[in-house]
Structures are given as C-alpha cells and as structure tokens.
Amino acid sequence: MSGSGLHTYAPLLLHLLIATVLAGALTTVSVLVGWRRPSRAKQQPYECGMEPTGDAREPFSVKFYLVAMVFILFDVEAIFLYPWAYIFRSLRWYGFGEMMLYIAILLVGYLYLWKKGALDWHK
To answer: Residue 26: CA atoms inside 13 Å, Cβ hemisphere, count?
Structure first.
C-alpha cells in the first residue's frame, strides 16, 4: 500500500463532498420550488390523529428519564459483548477474566439501581 494519507482517504472525502452537495442541492430546490400555502389547520400540532390536550410543557416524572438512561446504559454495555464473543478463542483466559470483571462492574451498577428503587414501577 503506497501513497500519502490524503491519497488513501480521497475516495471517502469525495463521497462526503458529493453527499453534502447533493443534500444541499435537494434542500435548496425543495425550498425554491415547493408550495407554501399555510392554513390554520396546517399550523396546528398533530398528535397521532387526536386533538392535542393540555400544555406541551407539562412536567414529566423523573422516572421516565431515569428508565431511559438506564436502558441506554445497559444497552450500550451489552453491545460490547458481541466483539468479545467474536474473538473469544484468541483472548483465552485473559480475555475471559477481563470480561468477567466488566460484567461484575455492570452487576454492581445494576444492584445499585435496584437498591435505589430505580427499577420499581409501583412507587
């Protein structure tokens, strides 16, 4: 493999440049050609075919945000198991020990959340 760093990345840069120009051109053409006929019905908020009720800035329980963060945390952590499983044979006992340490840290976090009541929906 020969060539400078820029030479090897030229196809990627060309692809990004073409994608950016195409996206900009399509957006510009849409703004210039598209119809603009605003009406009262078009300006109203739409929620699943039902008339919206109440204030949109109504406070939500922190529980919803906590559950979302916990889901993202454990979902992202579970993704790391796939590459580990793929190269498990080449890692041998060292890789096994490292993954057990990783899972132990996750288990401590899970037990902490359980103790704090973050997983209890009946509060």
So the answer is: 6
Domain count along the chain: 1
Q: For the segment 92-111, what is each residue's pLDDT rounded down to a tens digit?
A: 899 999 999 999 998 998 89
pTM, rounded to two decimals: 0.48
Name the region of 70 (left: φ>0; alpha: ψ -120 to 50; beta: rest).
Answer: alpha
Phi, psi of 34, deg, nearest 5: -65, 150
In a domain, 109, yes or no: yes
Give the CA count within 13 Å in the CB-facing half-sphere of 40: 0
5-49 residue pLDDT tens: 678 888 899 999 999 999 999 999 999 998 888 888 888 777 677
**What CATH number is associated with residue 97?**
1.20.58.1610
Long-range contacts for 1-6 (Cβ within 8 Å, ≥24 apart)? Answer: none
The distance in angstroms from the start CA to the end CA of the chain is 62
